[in-house]
Structure formats: structure tokens, C-alpha cells
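Researcher: Batch entry, complex prediction.
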Amino acid sequence: RGRRIALMNQKGGVGKTTAAVNLAAGIAEQGRRTLLIDLDPQAHATLHLGIDPGALERSVYDVLLDPDDDPRASVVEGRPFLDVLPAEVDLAGAETELAGMEGAQRRLARALETLGPKYEFVLMDCPPSLGMLTINALSAAREVMIPMQAHFLALQGVGKLLETVSLVAQRVNPVLRVMGVLLSMHDENTNHAREVVADLEAFLESAEGGEAPWSGAKVYRPAIRRNIKLAECPSFGKTVFEYAPWAPGALDFRKLAEGLVAESDAR
Amino acid sequence: RGRRIALMNQKGGVGKTTAAVNLAAGIAEQGRRTLLIDLDPQAHATLHLGIDPGALERSVYDVLLDPDDDPRASVVEGRPFLDVLPAEVDLAGAETELAGMEGAQRRLARALETLGPKYEFVLMDCPPSLGMLTINALSAAREVMIPMQAHFLALQGVGKLLETVSLVAQRVNPVLRVMGVLLSMHDENTNHAREVVADLEAFLESAEGGEAPWSGAKVYRPAIRRNIKLAECPSFGKTVFEYAPWAPGALDFRKLAEGLVAESDAR
Ligand SMILES: Nc1ncnc2c1ncn2[C@@H]1O[C@H](COP(=O)(O)OP(=O)(O)OP(=O)(O)O)[C@@H](O)[C@H]1O
Ligand SMILES: Nc1ncnc2c1ncn2[C@@H]1O[C@H](COP(=O)(O)OP(=O)(O)OP(=O)(O)O)[C@@H](O)[C@H]1O
Ligand SMILES: [Mg+2]
Ligand SMILES: [Mg+2]
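Model: C-alpha cells for the complex:
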């Protein structure tokens, strides 16, 4: 059964898109069929892969707003083994347009019933909010990965994030689990980062064996180190593996992607 | 006449709060009466200064929702010469509660008629959105400073940001100017940062002498270099000047703050 992973954090600029794109690419490089869904009206994941949102005929917007259409018509080929359900600017309207519509929270889940079976991995890049687009991702996903920086202020938002995951798990999607935290833009040699990670791991450990959807969650390794190559490659429409295959950012994401595939194979 | 500066960028995690707090502190250290207004329901600026949002009797929420109350009752002393109009979690409701209310966009502007005259500088820390709280800041401000990272993806949001400033300037606040961009978390030794800054400066230069509210805007120097001390000090409720007065982050913010005061004195 395929894995469906929402990369989610309502805080902005924490590395969701960078992780969604490079993890999806890293998994596809191992020959595993992957679908990357861009749920952000900013369309950064779409841009990152060199796809022009303005030139698209169809996008994830159509999938969400026209549930009777075939969602496969909106999918484009991104890379070998990597398909993309792209975003474009109309998606900004979706938050309001979906409100009050029939089955609004489960539009993406419904589309994945048709789309999903073809892929071993489905990764969803969420916008920095807890609105209808993120709720659609959480209702369609089986797992949640939380990209975040190991900074004090970053810890402040985690409670609200987990509360939202809980609500969706209780009301809409009982299989939803938080698989863990992805440390992004990591300054590994600082005490501050170490202390924040220790705080996180202590919190997750205290949830083990309990009822919460994050019991069993862990801090994923390796952390993704800060590496300018990761900030440069989107401007060329390239993944880090294409742009700088031996840079620390590429090494970290390749290792993480291999870990995710190995995790799947072990199940 | 006092300066009223909105630190604004709808993108998250770009250094708005870090700049608002440390610039306000740097200006206050020069003996200039400063008011820092926290407009973010996350209350990060409030926390950053060691003020407990949960223990507050009154906050900026009351100023916005009860326009007939005296706004001075909600101000607390933060540091010598630095007063704070703090945020707390109820502010999350303000976006919705204000919608449709009488004079909703100008609640903060109206409060500053009473509050403002006492201060030489008023700095407003905006949330990462273009909603009612940010609109209140833009309607009350005279100048806009845009903290951002010199990254390709960061450039993508600037157009929308300037469009919003334009709309507020045309409809609500004709004196509003964009004074410039504050480069935050700056990796000064990378080509990528240099190229993005060159792009920004070229864009701003092309607007010079024109009609837009950002004609005359510049890229402020110095850039604020990436410095872990800036991420650490909020966890102690301290400004960078209190926590690590000789760190690069402190040096950069002190220089910037001195530049802002000199700019004022020259007017
Ligand atoms: N490890 C890293 N090293 C250096 N730069 C990075 C790294 N990860 C991300 N970046 C850069 O930091 C910025 C923010 O990252 P990204 O866009 O992935 O975050 P996000 O959480 O998706 O943001 P948003 O909330 O706006 O969707 C981007 O300019 C990106 O290129
Ligand atoms: N120059 C810097 N060097 C290192 N860390 C920094 C720097 N500036 C900010 N940070 C850290 O980066 C994170 C984001 O910064 P900050 O909270 O100031 O951004 P913001 O734009 O106010 O975010 P939000 O949109 O959530 O309000 C924080 O953890 C902060 O401590
Ligand atoms: Mg993103
Ligand atoms: Mg902030």
C-alpha cells in the first residue's frame, strides 16, 4: 500500500517546499514511482522543478474544484518516476471557494482514490497555513512530516500544529499519524540547535505508547544542513541532485530519501 | 514629527520580529523614545522581550477592538526608552472580528493619534499575512520596511507585497512610503545572495522618480548576517544587545539602528 505523506507546518519559510521537492526527487531516483502534489498558491514546488505555473492548462485547483473530472488529466511529468500535480495562482481562491461546498475537506482524498494507486509515494507540499488546503492534505495523507528549524521561536508553533493534526485525525481521517520532524536549515554545530532538538526528542518520547497521533513520532536523521545550493537550485528549476549532486544538501536529502524507501521496504 | 515604520512581509520566517525587536532596542539605546507594537497573534516580539503574553491584562487586541478605550492603558514598559504594545493569543480572533466593523482598517491609526506623539519612533511587527492586522499597520504607518532573505524564492512574493502597499496608499493612507528592504539572515559570501541583491537594487532603481510608493526605496545597509545569537536570545527573553553585545548580529543591528536615527536627524 502506497505512502501518502503531507509535509506540513503553518509557520512560513521552514523548508517544506525544499524538502517536498528534493525528497520526492530522491525517492524517484531510486526508481520508486512518486507523485508530488503542490498545494501552495505560491506554486514554489512547481517553480522549483522548472514547471511554469502560468503556462498550465490544468492544476491541483481543477482537481479540488471539479471533483467529477478525472484528476489524472491535471498531472504532468516532472522527472523520470516523478509526476507532479502542480499549483497555480488561482489556487489562492480555493480556500474561500471550497468553504461551504459539499465534501470540501475530502476533495483531495477523493481524487487520490483514482490517482493514488499508481504511486509508491505521494508527497504533498502544504502552504504556511491551517486552512482548507492544508486540511485537504491532512485528510488525504496517511502520514505527516513536519519540517522545522531547531530554533526557540520555531518550537512555539508546534502545539497548535499537533492540535490541528489531532482534530483531523479524530473527525475526518483516523489513520493519520505524525511520522516525525525533519530538521531543516540545521546549524548542527551550535548548542542552541542541540538544545532545541533535545527538547523535541524529550517531548516525542513522552508521547510514546500513548493515544496521540504523534506517539511513535521521531526526529528524522540526517538533519538537512544549511547549504546555499538548496537556495540556488530553484532559480534554475532544478533539484539539488541535478544542480549540485555532491553538495551537503544533496548528500543529506539523498540519505533521508534512502531512509524513507528502506523504511517502506521493511514494513 | 515621529517616524512610524511597519516591518512587513507576508512571507513567514523572514526576520520581521528579529528586526522589529532589535531595531527598536537599538534605537532606544540611543535614548530615542520608541514604541514597539506586536501585531502578530504568535506574540513572538512580546516573548522576545521577556514579556509573558498569558499574564497580560490588556494588549493590542483591546486597542483594536475597543476604540473608545484609552490605548495607553495597554502599553507596558519593555526597556528604558522602549515601550511595548504587546500581543496575546486572542489577537488570532481579531482578523475575523474586525471584518465588517466600523472603521476596521484604521483602528490602529486612530489609536496612534493618542499614543503616537510621545514617541520619536513607532515600530510595528506584522504577522505573515496580508489580512486585517497587516492592513491596520499599513494604514497607521508612514513608512514600510521589508525584511527578506536574498533568495530566489523570496523574490517571488515581493510583487504581491508591493501591490498591497499600493492599494493601501491609494485608498486609505496617501503618505505611505516603502523606505526599503532589510536583508536578513544574509549569507554575504555567496554569489546567489549577491545576484538576488543586484536584482532587487536594479528593480528599485527603475522605480526612482516615478509615482509608486516604492520610488526612492533602497536596500538598507548593513545587511543582517546570519548569526545564531539572534536565534538564541529570544529563548532568554533578551535583545541581542543584552545577550551577545559583540556578536555579528548585535554589530549589524546597532549599525542599522544608528543609521535610522541619523536619517531622522538629517531630515
Ligand atoms: N537547508 C537549506 N539551506 C539553505 N537554504 C534553504 C534550506 N532549506 C530551504 N532553504 C531556502 O530557504 C527559503 C525557505 O525555504 P522553503 O521555501 O522550502 O520553505 P517553506 O516552508 O516551503 O516556505 P513557505 O512557508 O513560504 O511555503 C527558500 O528560499 C529556500 O530556498
Ligand atoms: N540573522 C539571523 N540569524 C540567525 N537566525 C535568525 C536571524 N534572523 C532571524 N533568525 C531566526 O529565524 C527565525 C525566523 O525569524 P523571525 O521570527 O524574526 O521571522 P518572522 O518573519 O518574524 O517570522 P513570522 O513570519 O513567523 O512572524 C527565528 O527563529 C529567528 O530567531
Ligand atoms: Mg513552501
Ligand atoms: Mg514574526
